[in-house]
Every structure is written in C-alpha cells, then in structure tokens.
Amino acid sequence: MIKLGEYNKLKVKRKAEFGYFLDANTGRTSDDVLLHNRLLNKNHIEVGDEVEVFIYKDSEGRLAATMNYPKAAVGDIAYLKVVAHTKIGSFIDVGLPKDILVPFKAQKYEMTKGNRYLFYIYVDKTGRLAATTDIFPYLSVEAPYKVGDTVEGVVYGFQTNNSASVCVDNKYDAVILNNEYFTELNIGDKLENLKVIKIYEDGRLGLTPRGDRKVELDTLEIAIMSYLEGNDGFMRFNDKSSPDEIATVFNSSKKNFKRALGVLMKKGLIIQNEEGTFLK
What is the per-residue pLDDT across 1-22, written as a single tens digit (0 to 9) for each? Predict the structure, then answer.
C-alpha cells in the first residue's frame, strides 16, 4: 500500500515521453503513479527497476512521485518558510513541487510571510498533506542531553509567565524561564549556544542563552564602564534599580548587575549613591 507523504519503494512499470509510471500494486493501470522527468534528480532508471520515491499529491489531487526528497515527511517536525497567505490558510515551502497548506484552524499564532516557524506535517481528512503550528503534542521529553551540554533550538511559543517554549533538534521539548533571557524573543527565532541547566522531572530540558557567569560578568563590567564613559561618567542606575530597567538597558539580571557593580567598586573604578553610579 502506498503511503502518502512518506518514502516508498515502487517498481517502474512503464515509460512515457514526460516521465515514468510506477506500479501502485492495485492491479489497476489508472492507479499508476507518475514520476516526472524533472523529478528524477539526475537518476537513470529503467522499466523494471525498483526505486525509492517520495509520494505526494499534485495540484489536481493525483498521487505523484519525486526523487527530490523534501524537507520533511509525514510525522516530522520541521523549520519551514511561510511563502503565502490565502483565503483558506497559509502555505509553506516543504521542498515539493506543490506547497503545503496550513489551515487557519491549525495556526496557533499569527505568521509573517517570509519567516520560518516549526510545523508538524500530517495527512488531513481529504487525504492531502497539511501542516500545523501546534507541535507540542508531538514533542519528546526523552532527550539524550545532560546538564552542561550545549544545544540549538527554535522558540515555538510562550507560557503565561513569558517563559519561552523551545523545541530542540526539531524533536525535544525545552523551556527558557523568563528570568534566563533579557533580550526580546519571538516565535520562530532560532537560538544557538543554549546551555542545558536543568532536566525537569518530566524529562523536559531547562535551557539558558546566558554564557558562563565569569564571562558574563566580565562582559557586563565592560558594558557598565562603556555606558558611564559615554554619559559623562554618570548613570542613574545603581544596585537599587529595578530588574526591568536593568534587563532593558544592560540585558542582565539584577543579581549579576549588582555583582558587576561590586567588582568595579572593589577595583576602585566607580562609586555609587542614591542618585546613581559615578566614575571615580
């Protein structure tokens, strides 16, 4: 039985001027699957050969085959580009001659044409390939990573407290708590150099985009000194400033900001009072 949206091994049954017909094993010639010449991917095939092809439906709803393997198959989660918005939904480029529909009901958030997001590929009720942004039910919590490992991931949503839901390796569920990031994150953002800092009881990964604490403090110290030097040796921020202000201006937690101020004061470079911080 032919499996739509998957890789199938089929026998070449007959040749035509524009391509080859593959045996669908139904006993009906009308069910033979067309493999067009332009989709051979430079492979030379003959009648009688068994070939591995990807099966999809063409613009007229007929089964078709390609040797140009797509970016994702049924059951995959993939990072794909939105190429069009229409009255029936959005379309994404999966590397097939025909783009895949993301119905409105399968869109959990607003998407921007030209941007990439994570999608789960499935076969809809009409027997066509389709995609959804609701990837959570298909994520695994059995990641092979341990605390201290570095991974890459894509933001696929936000929790009510603004912690970011992240998919690692297009497969594993993870989270970046809201106090672990200080720059703006958006759904669809691809993040590199994420460090695993916790593995929750349910197996989900806890991540941070922040670097090693010593490196982070050194960088923050430089940022504070640069800010002071660029503002006539004064800034209104001190260790009493609000966490939100510190995060906005210095991309830092208040805890690390206070540590950096302490280090700079010990070095004799700054002083602070109720008004703010001054260069010595």
Answer: 899 999 999 999 999 999 999 9
What are the phi and psi torsion angles at 167 (to 5°)?
A: -105, 125
Instruction: Give the domain CATH number at 155.
Output: 2.40.50.140
Range of the domain at 164: 139-208
Residue where a domain terminates, one of 97, 115, 136: 136
Cα(271)–Cα(253) distance, integer angstroms: 20
Which structure tokens are listed for 230?
A: 């660029």
The angle subtended at Cα 224 by Cα 219 and Cα 226, nearest 5°, is 95
Task: Give start and end residues of each alpha helix (H) in 153-242.
Answer: 213-229
Q: Which residues pair with 119 in a beta bridge?
A: 78
**Sequential DSSP letters for 147-178:** TT-EEEEEEEEE-TT-PEEEEETTTEEEEE-T
Q: Is residue 125 part of a domain?
A: yes
Total domains present in the chain: 4
Examine the domain organization and report whether 165 and 194 are in the same domain: yes
Q: What is the pLDDT of residues 189-226, one digit of tens each?
A: 999 999 999 999 999 999 998 766 555 667 888 889 88
Among residues 157, 95, 158, 162, the alpha carbon closest in space to that of 129 is found at 95
Whether residue 146 is found in the same domain as residue 199: yes
β-pairing, 33-36 vs 50-57, is unpaired
Q: Answer whether 0.85 is exceeded by the pTM.
A: no
Is residue 1 one of the residues assigned to a domain? no
Starting at the edge strand found earlier in the chain, the sheet holding 234-235 runs: 234-235, 277-279, 270-272
| Domain annotation covers residue 54 | yes
* Per-residue CA distances from 87 to 59, 104, 117, 122, 182 (Å): 17, 9, 20, 21, 37
